[in-house]
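hi support,

uploading two proteins for the ticket. first:
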Amino acid sequence: MNHWHMYSFRYSFLMLLVFWLFIGGSLNAYSQDEINAQHILEKADESRAPWGDFSMNVMIENVDNRNNNTKHLFRVFIKDYIKSIVYYLYPIKQRGNLLLMVGDDLWFYVYRTQRPVRITPIQKLTGGASYGDVSRLSWSIDYIVDSLSEERVMINEKIYDSLLLKLMARSKSATYNKIDLYVDKKTFLPLKSFVYLFSGKKMKTIYYTGFSKIAGKTMNTKVEIVDHLSDEKKTVMLFSDVEIKKVPERFFIKSNLHELSGSIVQ
């Protein structure tokens, strides 16, 4: 009888051990998948904001269905990856206007009224570009990876082996509610994305079509947007004149906007 109890105890202990090893292995594998997906997203981010502090010009060109073009030029300053201030350069009548993003707060400052107005990142900046498309360049901060899978995609008649990251917004500063982001399987550079409204409706298709080597790092310097809510109109964003240096903290204080409006860009 004692032998039977001892055998039963050992058998139960062995089965329990196998069970916990199985569960533990599954949990470890799941956690590793999450870690890998987050790492891929961070690598994709590196091409959008390769440095914590830098500034650049952003030219936005809108093309309507009649091939009429309009252009806007901005100087964008990024600090610590998540703070940004955007200075309007062109058209001249908008020069001196500012966008300020700190944390989850986005402010639009109109130099004529000298009043900052709170806005949301998804609101239209010009054409198919939203405010958040120039003021917020960190997917890995604003989104979590809901799923990761492999998929072959065609862009400009070229087929790519890609990874599809389905992203869900996790902060108020996120420009979109959901993003389907395709990145190159080998380099993790972004290829294209579908972005969605809170209703689930597809808002835009965004193509990441140009990359440049700057100070030893690869940077996404051309983005093409197709606006599905505005007759499939196209918008092209070009990033240039990159300057890598510390950006002053005073640029990101709301009470300084009046002063900055006339002095941030000489």
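and the second one:
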Amino acid sequence: MPDSARVSDSSAKPSGAFLWDMAGTLISYDGITGRPDTIPGGEEVLPELGKLFRLFVTTGDETDSACKMLQGFDLLQHFEAVYGDLYTPLGKPYGRILRDVGCAPEQSLAIGDRLRSDLPADTPDVVLLLVNQYDEVVNAGMIRFLVNQLRAHGDTFPAAFHACAAMGEPDPEAVGELQGGQITQAWRSKVGLRLRLFEYKHSLLDGKRLVIQI
């Protein structure tokens, strides 16, 4: 099991988890100066998301170092635990983490900024929100909006993904090879944000993965 540090106890526990990547997602880096900064709007939105999900940090960084960095940006208080030292050939072991904490994969989301690093390695039931793929850093309010849209369109996040895809426009230009794998189907969403939804397959993964690019 990956190294982890328990941060707080969750008394009234939701059934789903929100699994946050740290570097490039919770903490981004200025493209010119290289200085780190927190996700815009995080101070307001993270407590709101904490009422809907159990919040965890998942990172390839060493756990103690990650905790110190999160503490330095006053983010650590929002998370139940930090899972560090996550090294797999592709993605992160969200399935093992969710079993460890007793959360349902289909009620959970993962968020990160790198496809190969942040894909669900061991479960097809966690939808990945792939952020910061365009010119500007995604703010926490946009993530909150997307979460609310998904919750309105399905009882599980895979069901919501497919419902939003069915309402969107097929995006055949996006289909093809990507980072050693294959986008097999893709859609442009009409839920009010610039979104691409796609199904991704890779030889190192068992089955397809559902990704929402924002």
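thanks. also noticed: The chain has a mean pLDDT of 92.
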